[in-house]
Specification:
Layout (H helix, E strand, L loop, with lengths): L21 H4 L1 E4 L4 H13 L3 E4 L5 H10 L6 H15 L8 E6 L10 H12 L5 E4 L14 H24 L8 H19 L5 H13 L9 E7 L1 H5 L7 H7 L2 E4 L3 H19 L6 H25 L8 H9 L13 H11 L4 E7 L3 H8 L2 H7 L4 E7 L5 H20 L1
Parallel strand pairs: 1-2, 1-3, 3-4, 5-6, 5-7, 7-8
Amino acid sequence: METETKPTVDFSDDFPKFTREMKKTHTILIPDMLPRHFELLRHVLGMHGYHVEVLKNEGSKVIDEGLKHVHNDACFPALCVIGQFLDALKSGEYDPDRTAVLITQSGGGCRASNYIPLIRRALKAEFPQVPVLSLNFAGLEKENGLELDLKFLLQLAYAIFYGDLLMSLFNQTRPYEVNAGESEQVLGDCVSHLKECFSNGSYHKFKRNVLDLLKAFSKIPVKAEKKVKVGIVGEIYVKYSPLGNSHLEDFLLAENCEPVVPALMDFIMYCVVNNLNDSKFYGRRDKTTPLFAVAYRWLVAKQRKVLRLTEKYSRFEPQHEFEHLRKCADAVINQGVKMGEGWLIPAEMAALCETGTENVVCAQPFGCLPNHIAGKGASRAVKKLYPRANIVPVDYDPSATKVNQENRIKLMLATARENLQR
């Protein structure tokens, strides 16, 4: 009887590396942040030979696992991500000898770009054979990154555009649906349809696919009533992740509100344009600068197409155009402020207030300096521009209780409901 051999692991740099052969043998775990987006991204990664699973585990045990290996002053998102990885590996569902983990890196000055050393240190203590992969466009972790080519990158971009549109349509429909659960059903059908489009190569038929999504959600019967709209801005992880923000969107829906969540592609374009701003403001120009310029023009054109189609062929309000966000930022803060989410946070707050979403939750990890300066600190300047702005900063960290977080938001909602009645 033959015995199964374990995959060979390269520890040449004191940590395991993900080799090309591991694509066939390993399951790659990614932390949950945007459920609809990540399901599409998981499918795209699978088309390129990567067996990926999006983690859904959460609760106090996940946070406790993170606290075992990460100092609570490090970063709450890092604690959540590492806690999810370790809790999943300890669950018995995955063979550590055939499992890897994946994290994205923006390449900026935020601590998020330094998660990988923290993850490796935590894994080394309990699962030293598990390699860590990086998905980034900043040239980090070259030996432990995904093998990306132009087609792969385009598919990832399309998946994010479709995910942003689905998120927007769902949030504009679910609070008003006549038949409970119909929005969730249509959302699932749309995700399945898009997966099929990626599989058969029709994902690039952008106009047709966007119109299909608009048509599907337009058929859902809705009630003609006004509800409080609440925008969600802040640090990229806690803004989107149900684990990181204590299911903020679900809480707002339970409070009879409409959540308004900015597009993930805005953050991608923010990272791209910051490379161009480095050249403009600081003279930091290299061979990649023209490539970022080409990528930015392509992304702007695709985004404008989605916005035009949404405005022309549906009853839904389109998300904000990124070039307009840049103009909103210039009214509040300089675009050279780019640590963490930097100028993007006040830009999103201003754009939301400008289009009638005057109630805003600024979600931030406790102790995140860029968010406290560019988010909480800039809110006063936004309120000067938009006197009706109703902005509440909410800290998320291991010691913050969900009750206190929700109470702060409820105080903001009380003011929002008074303003709506007026």
